[in-house]
Specification:
About 45% of the residues lie in helices and about 25% in strands. It has twelve helices and 18 strands. A hairpin with a 2-residue loop joins strand 7 and strand 8. The model has no long low-confidence stretch (mean pLDDT about 90).
């Protein structure tokens, strides 16, 4: 029960932040364009706390923290699709201008679009802030700190060493480091030429990327068996492993067969039986590739010294990360519909809640990064042209712009009902994948 409460707490925190930003986008742009808000609610159901500001907007916190809404003047409900005809009939022309239903088309469109846009802005700023805080590894690669490793590893490297060559080959800049590491032999010890206190010396050290667990993916096989960040895999099925790449190849070649991992954890020897899971991963160039994974990420056995990338560089990185999530999500949805990848890639509320708790357990930055990812997903989902979502409202406004009149109230009622049915069906399907997918 403690674990369940922890998971739910962080799920509510993540969702509340995202909903608050989304609804504030609607609210503030509505206010800027002359549309008055009557209620700003985080959550649904019974009101726990509320206050009315000087503009007459009631800000409230409700008991069911799984969403929120802004009810604008003249709305029949928080969805802003149905008008309160009696209230509108009693208003004069000036009062009508401050309602969602009688405001100019441009004002209504901007107000509706602002929710998803604010979600994307939140994501960009969070990604940029994390990238700025983490920094980029400096050239030449410089050791700041060294992770604990099993006694079998020989390590003569020290914090402050600047790495000039590895295994007799000049160390490349950080841009070419990935390809360089792939060419290194899978050995537990190799030579390093370093600059230490102004002098170049050769020392012995482990593979730059030993089978060290730097992070764990949510809902992964490794997380399920309680592997931890900092674990070092020493052998798989009794065969010693010296590099993370060697471990990844062994997992990939298993094709889902359960493997026995010997793990060193702060001086303790442990064993885990882990069955790799088939996973569909988005490619940077588009499309997906299917691989067998246990859900661990590796890195150097040391922490590299970093320097700030600069605000503009970090901001551009935030834009790139947000765009990658949008494009890979759309691609993933299309591939699921076409049957190219499994529908188990779709996460529902249970999966998202579990991911919230898992990311929170790995630290503040991991959780904040997840909130930004989820914010992008919420913004994208709301732009889908489905009645009841923001994208559906924008389609109605596009029809109004072309036809010169809005859809009839009867048509709106039918379409909104169909949209709600579709969303509920999609949610039930997503819950089923959370429960029944491995």
């Amino acid at each position: 029960m403690g674990g369940l409460a922890y998971t739910l707490a962080f799920f509510v925190v993540a969702l509340s932040v995202i909903v608050a930003v989304h609804e504030y986008g609607h609210y503030i742009v509505g206010r800027w364009t002359g549309i008055e808000a009557e209620v700003f609610s985080i959550g649904f159901g019974p009101v726990l706390a509320s206050r009315v500001d000087r503009r007459g907007t009631r800000w409230q916190l409700a008991a069911l923290p799984f969403g929120g809404y802004v009810k604008f003047k003249g709305d029949a409900d928080g969805a802003s699709a149905q008008a309160d005809e009696d209230a509108l009939a009693s208003m004069n022309s000036e009062e009508l201008r401050h309602t969602m239903h009688a405001a100019p088309l441009w004002a209504r469109s901007a107000t509706v679009a602002a929710g998803p846009i604010f979600n994307f802005v939140l994501s960009i700023l969070v990604f940029a802030a994390v990238l700025f805080a983490r920094g980029e590894a400096v050239d030449p690669l410089t050791i700041e700190d060294i992770a604990p490793l099993p006694p079998a590893y020989v390590n003569e490297l020290q914090p402050g060493d600047q790495i000039l060559a590895i295994a007799g080959e000049p160390a490349p800049s950080r841009e070419g480091l990935g390809a360089f590491l792939e060419e290194l032999p899978d050995t537990m010890a190799m030579s390093y030429r370093v600059r230490r206190d102004g002098e170049e010396i050769v020392v012995q050290g482990p593979h730059p990327q030993p089978p060290l667990v730097r992070s764990l993916s949510p809902q992964s096989a490794a997380l399920d068996v309680e592997m931890r960040v900092g674990d070092v895999v020493t052998a798989i099925d009794g065969v010693p492993v010296a590099s993370f790449a060697q471990m990844a190849r062994t997992v990939a070649e298993s094709e889902g067969r359960a493997l026995v991992f010997d793990v060193w954890r702060n001086g303790e020897e442990l064993q885990f039986a882990v069955a790799p899971r088939r996973t569909d991963l988005p490619r940077p160039e588009g499309g997906f590739e299917t691989r067998w994974l246990i859900g661990v990420t590796g890195d150097f056995f040391f922490t590299a010294a970093t320097a700030s990338p600069g605000p503009l560089t970090a901001l551009w990185g935030g834009v790139g990360q947000t765009w990658f999530i949008i494009t890979s999500s759309v691609s993933g949805l299309w591939h699921m519909i076409s049957g190219a990848i499994s529908s188990c890639n779709l996460s529902g509320p249970i999966g998202i809640a579990e991911t919230s708790g898992a990311m929170a357990s790995q630290g503040v930055l991991a959780f904040i990064w997840f909130v930004a990812v989820l914010s992008t997903a919420v913004g994208l989902l709301n732009l889908f042209p489905i009645p009841i979502l923001d994208g559906g409202h924008l389609v109605f406004y596009a029809y109004e712009a072309l036809a010169g009149r809005p859809p009839s109230q009867r048509a709106l009622q039918i379409l909104m009902g169909a949209g709600l049915t579709f969303i509920l069906s999609l949610m039930l399907f997503a819950v089923a994948t959370d429960i029944f997918c491995p």
